[in-house]
Amino acid sequence: MTAQLLLSQVKLLLDRNMLEKGIFAPNLEMHPFNQTIKNVVSLLQRQAELQKIVISFSPLKNEVVA
Question: Which residues contact 34 (CB under 8 A, 6 or more apart)?
Answer without folding.
Answer: 59, 60, 63
